[in-house]
């Protein structure tokens, strides 16, 4: 496990920063932002990337357990901090940024891995380089906000290999298409929402030349099969991947060719990691020492996230799934999202994936609503031009009775994080006044 967090040093003084210090970054992402992240980590200083749109109250709540030594909330501060350490922007990072969990169900938690000795620091960089093949001629197109772990990881990996990054700004299909045309990127990370918006735009204006891409990786949310198939068809052969991971760490990586052979899989364990599941289906991932972490200010949650296995310390983020005989992982959902209807366990992800197969469904989120007879009933919030009757008919074909939604609520859009994850804490509020108990009251009759 990583060592305890260091005590915070003098606050607000850039000159006082040293190994173990923490710097909260509350500014928009840019190429200079990524350079600063690398430079700080090379000095053993931990950047804390955060959404600059957080309210003052949210900032206080998130930063309280992190206790940053410096808060950067002006773009000019990025340049000033970078000017003092420009020779460090391609140096070996001595740890990972302190990213905060996505907070889809509550207050985000800071994930801390501690200062790494040289051997582990080198292993941290090599793991990403070897998996994704980062090289000096790479051009990484950044689509997601850089305060999130995945886009920042791809951007830093590219720069550390000698490549360059392109940061078009807030996601816009027109702007991204222009960047593809002008910059000839070789890699990009995206979430399914990005793909859906790009494909819709390209349906109107035509598909740009995508031949420069050697790597297109997507994650963050389930990808509809139709979108995945178009992704594979449009981009160069062998270039598209899906991976499964979290702010805490990475679990799997899966070329699209393997997904086609095993529809629904998110792949096998990344090199150096071992996957297992417990009796409840909860997924555990044994990781090398450089990938271990604690939650800052949350020792009980840290203890609950780790356990010893024959393959070494393993962590979980509460997701449930199953492994096939060849080690391919299939996700069922998250234990914290579990719906129990009439004593039957229902994972929202399974129901969502089934409903995404219905033509006209753009997106869908499933949750449990209180029910006087069954404890909870299954509810689906649906984005898209599709009749509830079509959804019910499909559910009857592919889902057991207890898993079939009793309510289909049309919504213009789902409350999402910038990386495409459903804000389930906001979803319940969105639907609260729109739900009507089904006349039959039965959780197994639809």
How would you describe this structure to a colleague?
The chain is an alpha/beta fold and 446 residues long. The protein has helices at residues 31-42, 56-63, 75-83, 118-132, 149-160, 173-183, 192-205, 225-234, 256-261, 299-305, 348-355, 388-398, 424-432, and strands at residues 22-25, 46-49, 70-72, 99-100, 110-112, 139-142, 164-166, 187-190, 215-218, 240-245, 250-255, 265-269, 274-277, 283-286, 294-295, 306-309, 312-315, 319-323, 329-334, 339-341, 344-346, 361-371, 375-384, 407-410. Mean pLDDT is 88; it is low at 1-11 and 437-446. Helix 1 (31-42) crosses helix 5. Helices cover 30% and strands 24% of the residues. The strands form six sheets. Strands 7-6-8-9-10-11-12-19-18 form a nine-stranded mixed β-sheet, with helices on both faces. The radius of gyration is 22 Å and the shape is globular. It folds into two domains: 14-331, ANL, N-terminal domain (Rossmann fold), CATH 3.40.50.12780; 338-432, GMP Synthetase, Chain A, domain 3 (2-Layer Sandwich), CATH 3.30.300.30. The relative contact order is 0.09. The protein has 13 helices and 24 strands. Strand 22 and strand 23 form a beta hairpin.
Query: Which CATH C-level class of the largest domain is it?
Result: Alpha Beta
- How many H/I helical runs? 13
- Briefly note the CATH topology name of the largest domain: Rossmann fold
Indicate the percent of residues in helices.
Answer: 25-40%
Strand content: 15-25%
Mean pLDDT: 88
Distance between the termini: 48 Å
Record field, number of beta strands:
24
Tell me the count of domains.
2
For the biggest sheet, the summary is: 9 strands, mixed
Low-confidence stretches: 1-11, 437-446
Question: How would the global form be characterised?
Answer: globular
Say which CATH homologous superfamily of the largest domain is assigned.
ANL, N-terminal domain
CATH architecture of the largest domain: 3-Layer(aba) Sandwich
Structural class: alpha/beta
Our Rg estimate from Cα atoms comes to 22 Å
- Across the major sheet, the strand order is 7-6-8-9-10-11-12-19-18
């Amino acid at each position: 496990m990583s060592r305890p967090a260091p005590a915070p040093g003098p606050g607000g003084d850039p000159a006082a920063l040293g190994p173990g210090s923490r710097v909260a970054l509350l500014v928009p992402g840019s190429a200079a932002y990524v350079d600063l992240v690398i430079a700080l980590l090379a000095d053993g200083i931990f950047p804390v990337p955060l959404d600059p749109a957080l309210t003052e109250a949210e900032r206080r709540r998130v930063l309280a357990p992190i206790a940053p030594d410096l808060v950067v909330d002006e773009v000019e501060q990025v340049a000033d901090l970078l000017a003092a350490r420009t020779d460090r922007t391609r140096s070996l990072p001595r740890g990972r940024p302190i990213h905060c969990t996505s907070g889809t169900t509550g207050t985000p938690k800071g994930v801390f891995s501690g200062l790494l000795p040289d051997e582990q620091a080198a292993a941290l960089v090599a793991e990403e380089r070897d998996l994704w093949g980062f090289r000096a001629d790479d051009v990484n197109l950044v689509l997601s906000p850089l305060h999130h772990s995945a886009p920042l990881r791809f951007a830093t990996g590219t720069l550390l290999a000698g490549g360059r990054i392109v940061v078009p700004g807030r996601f816009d299909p027109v702007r991204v298409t222009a960047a593809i045309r002008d910059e000839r990127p070789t890699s990009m990370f995206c979430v399914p929402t990005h793909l859906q918006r790009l494909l819709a735009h390209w349906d109107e204006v035509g598909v740009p030349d995508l031949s420069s891409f050697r790597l297109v990786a997507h994650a963050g949310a389930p990808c509809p099969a139709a979108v995945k198939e178009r992704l594979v068809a449009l981009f160069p052969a062998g270039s598209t991947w899906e991976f499964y991971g979290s702010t805490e760490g990475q679990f799997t990586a899966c070329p699209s060719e393997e997904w086609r052979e095993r529809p629904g899989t998110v792949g096998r364990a990344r090199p150096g990691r071992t996957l297992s599941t417990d009796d409840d289906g909860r997924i555990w991932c044994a990781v090398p020492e450089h990938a271990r972490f604690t939650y800052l200010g949350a020792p009980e949650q840290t203890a609950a996230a780790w356990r010893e296995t024959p393959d070494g310390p393993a962590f979980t983020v509460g997701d449930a799934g199953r492994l096939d005989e060849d080690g391919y992982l299939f996700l069922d959902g998250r234990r914290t999202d579990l719906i129990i209807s009439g004593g039957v366990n229902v994972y929202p992800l399974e129901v969502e994936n089934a409903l995404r197969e219905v033509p006209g469904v753009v997106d869908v989120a499933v949750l449990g609503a209180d029910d006087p007879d069954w404890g909870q009933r299954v509810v689906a919030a649906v984005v898209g031009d599709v009749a509830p009757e079509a959804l019910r008919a499909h559910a009857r074909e592919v889902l057991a009775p207890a898993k079939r939604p009793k309510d289909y609520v049309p919504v213009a859009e789902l409350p999402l994080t910038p990386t495409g994850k459903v804000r389930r804490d906001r979803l319940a509020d969105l639907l609260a006044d729109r739900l009507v108990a089904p006349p039959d009251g039965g959780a197994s009759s639809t």
